[in-house]
Amino acid sequence: MFAERVHRLWAECGAGAMRLDSDMLHVDELPVLEIGEDRGRWILPAFMSGLRTLQPRREVTSEDWFDLALRLGRLEISSESLSSFQNWLWSDGAEGFEVTLDASFVETADVIATSVDRDFSAVRTEALFAVDGDTAVVASSDLDAAVLLPEMQVPIESFVDAVEGRALEVSGGTLRGLSEASESVGAWASAEIQVVLASPVLQKGYPAARLARRLASMIAARCDASMLRLLVMLGGNAKGYLQDVWTYLADAGIGATIATGCKVEDPITAAALLDAAARFPDAVATELCRGLLAREGDPAVRVLSDLCERLGGLRFIARGVDDRAGETEGRQLAHVVIRLGLRGRDVDAILARLPTPAALAFVETTGAASLPGDVVARFADSGEHARVIQIAARVRSRDLAQRLLDRIVRDRGARWAEENVLALGVLARDLGLGDRVVEVIRSHRIAAETRLALLHAIEAAPDLEVRATRWSPALLLAPRDVRSAFAESRARRRTRS
Amino acid sequence: MNSPDARVIDEVFRWIRIFGSHGAAHPLAVEASKELAVAIADARPPFALQFVLGAVFRDRKLLPLPEDRFARARTIAQALTRAGIAEISFSQPPTVNDLGTLGAAIAASRPGTDELDQLRLATIQWRSIPHAKRGASGESVDRDVAATAELSLALASAEALPASGPWPWDVGGAIVRRLDRSLSLHTYASLRAIELSPAPWSPMRRATSAALHVLLALRTLGTSAATQRVATHAAMLIARRGLRERDGDIMTATCTRILRELWVDAEPKGTVEPHQLKVAAVVHAASMGVDAQKQFVMTSLLFLAYDLERRRLPERGRVVLSRVDLLALAVSDRRYDPSWVRLLINACGVVPPGALVELRDGRTGVVLGPSTHRDPWRPEVLVEGRIVVPDDRVRLRSSTQDAS
Lengths: 497, 404
Known about the structure:
The structure holds two protein chains of two kinds.
Chain A: H1 2-13, E1 18-20, E2 24-27, E3 30-34, H2 43-48, E4 51-56, H3 62-74, H4 79-90, E5 97-101, H5 105-114, H6 125-132, H7 140-143, H8 156-164, H9 172-183, H10 185-198, H11 200-205, H12 208-221, H13 225-234, H14 240-251, H15 254-261, H16 267-279, H17 282-293, H18 298-311, H19 313-320, H20 327-340, H21 345-353, H22 356-366, H23 373-380, H24 385-395, H25 398-411, H26 418-430, H27 434-442, H28 448-457, H29 462-469, H30 480-496
Antiparallel strand pairs in A: 1-2, 1-4, 2-3, 4-5
Helix pairs in contact in A: 1-3, 10-12, 10-13, 12-14, 12-15, 13-16, 15-17, 16-17, 16-18, 17-19, 18-19, 18-20, 19-21, 20-22, 23-25, 24-25, 24-26, 25-26, 26-27, 26-28, 27-28, 27-29, 29-30
Chain B: H1 4-22, H2 27-42, E1 47-52, E2 55-58, E3 61-62, H3 67-82, E4 87-90, H4 96-108, E5 124-127, H5 143-159, H6 169-185, H7 187-196, H8 203-221, H9 225-242, H10 251-264, H11 274-286, H12 290-293, H13 298-312, H14 323-332, H15 338-348, E6 356-358, E7 364-369, E8 380-383, E9 386-388, E10 395-397, H16 399-403
Helix pairs in contact in B: 1-2, 1-3, 1-4, 2-4, 5-6, 5-7, 5-8, 6-7, 6-8, 6-9, 7-8, 8-9, 8-13, 8-15, 9-10, 9-11, 9-13, 10-11, 11-13, 13-14
């Protein structure tokens, strides 16, 4: 519970690095804890063990805090305790933390004592003198006469020639290549996984949860094609230990991490992503597809289009779309549809799966010519009046206009902006829904401003206006501005006639 | 805590305070000397106390003290190092008289004087340790001496590494840390110390050399500290298990054996830390044969470092090849990755420490390291027991040429 609280508070306050002096703990260079009677007693031994800074990583967990606290609590000023703690830190045991270490007091005292200990057995006095100055003595073994073996003829002349000919220089490209290869996250992860899988005994000392966490951390740091290929190799049909690894990876949201972190613009990574989405276990693949859909830009669209072709439209939609899909997902899907030239039933199937906000963005982006019935109903109820009216105007959907008018009646005109009502009125009139508009105008349940806006919308249709403003006893109950507007309309017509 | 050691600290603390504030003639000073004599006798001499970095060590082992005693120990260490004493040895229980004399001398001593050097006591010895006052980053130490000392300690620890069975991770880690510090302090002093040590080229020394050169290559490359640690540790592990008195097993066979010994036969004790897993991963990759190794370039570097040390002492004959001989062999051998070979040569220098060279005047010497000249062919050379910087470019010779 304590660890959870520390974990939560640390994340909340957004603190950075802890730095240790021999008697003080600093956080973000501010002194926060001094050694006292009953607090901070771990600071000195931790400092003596060589610990200098400690910074929680993004992926730090409450278990990491707990483990660290446990070890700090057990620290004491003794060679064994300090060395053990130092070894734990040095071996990356503090998994949730970035650590910097100096030499421990024990190691430093050793080296200081050694530098004056001239009878040291491994490197005798001569070696130390050799760095000091004039009295140096060459190791006799190096100059010993040796029996020369023909096969040991050392090509020293050709070595010199190569040096002189600058054939042994290292180019910047070579250095970069070696450096990148040495640090390749994929290569390291692959090697680690292979050794764990090769040794069931090792799996006991390195449980699936830890391996999964390590993989997740590597992927968060760098998600390249090699890393993706490695995960693909682990496969969706994993059993036993690997299956557990995948379970933890899914819990850690690895699909979303990959989708967010991978370079979709890199063709090799993009190809690896396709494999990954097709062959990861379902839960992770689904999360990956959803994450990819949430990314914006053309490169993402290219990958999504390839993925749609690879998986098939329906499977792609099943994986990529859920209730959380928003406008970005809708727009990206629309771009995929355009890119692939999909139409008709395929598009309707996609639309049917999309939540309303995503569907709106999808329809706006594709410029779809028609809308399935269920989508019409959802759009009408979406509350996005202006956008839906625009869509209805573009697709000339009488059904949608009708439903929007019904919606006005249900809402009694409340929360409807005047310009939207006006636009809807014009659209409804043009689509042959004048009778329904007249009904709404004459309904005393509707807000006055809505009725007036609709009346304004049918000004260009005199017959409708006549019917809408015809006097009746019920008008006596209408608000004054409605009565006035109706009366003005009637008067205008009389004058004209 | 009332251990004899803690009591010694308490009594030394009291003894210093009383001598410092009341002087040697005060009755309390005599009493303090008596109490201290008893405490030291109870702690069973012979033993030595070292005062380094403000901490107290008994026979070079840090005294386990609680915080309150540690504060006292720090005061004692500061007072004694101010008087030029970094180590006090008790070959037998000290007499009260000797303690009184020493206490008075310490109280009267002034920093920077050698008053205590003139004093001789039968039951107490003391000495200064030149570098005991060094700062945490070693700025007040001769860096090459400190580098040699770190390397010497690494070599000494390597001697304790077992040739088979479970790997002592803590010892291996401590060796890697020392190699790292050694290279950080003074690269050429480290290379010189490993190459020119008069000790025989035992498997341990060759294993340490292999690990040192892997570390050197990766440092030159600028890889992360974690990668350097892992590769160096793996190199040490592989070389220690594979090298024999002369020659050694081929690396893939060695790695296969290591994996079996590490975790197939023996379950890991407790949890396996990420560093250990990565070391095992490197060893596993290195056991997979050349084609598989190409997938993980780190193993090519390990193969190079290991195989060169294997060839340093060929099975037949008494040849001992120097580093430059090995580098020359590496250049002409297609089994090694040329990129790593070139990197290693650039890291060691084309005329590395230990290389046998001929001067223009015909004398032969051994290279100690680069000189202040920019020309790499004019290094510091040890000739007839003296260090010289040649007037002209030297000529490389191989150890086997010399032998002929």
